[in-house]
Amino acid sequence: MSSVETMTGTLGSTILERIGNTPMVRLERTAAHLPGIQLLGKAEWTNPGGSIKDRAAAAIVAAAEAKGLLGSRRLLDATSGNTGIAYAMLGAAKGFPVTLCMPSNVSLERKRILSAYGAEIVWTDPADSSDGAIRRAQELARDSERYYYADQYSNEANWKAHYEGTGREIWEQTEGRITHFVAGLGTSGTFMGVTRRLKENNPAVQCIAMQPDSPFHGLEGLKHMASAIVPAIYDARLVDRTVEQATEGAYTMAKRLARTEGLLIGISAAAAVAVSLKIAEEEAAKGRAAVIVAILPDSADKYLSERFWEDE
User: Fold this and answer.
1) Are 59 and 161 in contact (CB under 8 A)?
2) Which helix (H) or strand (E) holds 285?
3) 305 is catalytic
4) Cα(205)–Cα(244) distance, integer angstroms
5) Which of 58, 74, 213, 264 is most buried, judging by how many CB atoms fall within 10 Å of its CB?
6) What average pLDDT does the chain have?
């Protein structure tokens, strides 16, 4: 038997094995003017599907398979893009069909990625945002013989993926020194899961929820909670503070990070950094040290067709 044959099954890794354990990046130049402040970003674009949504999608699929809920049915869900890409990637890798309901104004890059994976897309009115996609998925889900409705907005496996994975990683990577956590609210799974883990380890950690400043915004994947369908997994009691972020400010931060940190990150990631910098400036003004961690859900790869990159 050759040495290669003896190692069959031990070389490389599967798609599932590559999800999680993402690195932390220091935003040194962004916070250089703030003494005692360490500003960090969790680099979730290093997941195989390119976003943090790989974590929740993998957990949702695993839970469905364990309960025998998927079987020969199509996995169905509403998505603004990244979770859909994760589902489509997993469906291609594991051999189950995927149907996604999405607003038709998602970025061109998202559309092409989903097409490449072979997912079936049901487009919805962009004016209805992600809520319109949810309502359409709920309609399709009535055909329970054809579809398994994953419902990421209500699925407990969503936040549990971040409790078990993302939150634990952040605590370990900061060696327990984290003082502030910032994440955007979409399904709210990331915020709920990470916050529960961090608060268990240290109740003093401040967990700040970032959301768009109006119902009409360009922070793809995020919800303006006051005007949207609130996810069933969302628990407002876990939020220490909510900070609203304008789309234009996120665009400005995305370009700033590209040109001063060498980081090409997505729009919601840039919004989280903008809010984190606001928190950092507040803490520095009070003479307090802080270790602030922002979730960076994805890179700029899916947004490079957006016009704001060309604006001065």
Assistant:
1) yes
2) helix 267-285
3) no
4) 20
5) 58
6) 94
Active site residue 130: no
d(CA 128, CA 301): 25
Q: Is 137 within 8 Å of 149 (Cβ atoms)?
A: yes
Position 159 in a domain: no
Cβ neighbors of 26 (< 8 A, separation 6 or more) are 38, 39, 40
Q: Which of 189, 197, 118 is nearest to 151 (CA)?
A: 189
- Angle at the Cα of 233 from the Cα atoms of 266 and 235, rounded to 5 degrees: 95
Both tokens of residue 120? 């079936």
**Which candidate in 42, 53, 223, 255 is catalytic?**
53
184 phi/psi in degrees, rounded to 5: -75, 160
Do 100 and 79 touch, CB atoms closer than 8 A? yes
Tell if the pTM clears 0.90, that is, is over it. Answer: yes
Residue 264 within a domain: yes
Q: Partners of 78 in the beta sheet? A: 101
What are 77's strand-pairing partners? 100
pLDDT of 5 over the 60 cut: no
pLDDT digits (tens, 9 = 90+) for 184-214: 999 999 999 999 999 999 999 999 999 999 9
- Going across the sheet that includes 147-149, the strands are 120-124, 98-103, 74-78, 147-149
Contacts 24+ apart (CB under 8 A), 212-215: 212/244, 212/245, 212/246, 212/247, 212/271, 213/244, 213/245, 213/246, 213/247, 215/129
* CA distance linking residue 35 with residue 290, whole number of Å: 9
Characterize the bridge pairing of strands 24-26 and 74-78.
Answer: unpaired
Q: Single out the catalytic residue among 51, 107, 130, 268.
A: 268
Q: How far apart, in whole angstroms, are the C-alpha atoms of residue 36 and residue 32?
A: 10
Calpha distance 54→25 (Å, rounded): 19
For residue 282, the enclosing domain spans 3-46+167-310
Count of domains for the chain: 2
Element (DSSP H or E) covering residue 259: helix 247-260
Q: How many Å apart are CA 45 and CA 94, to the nearest integer? A: 21
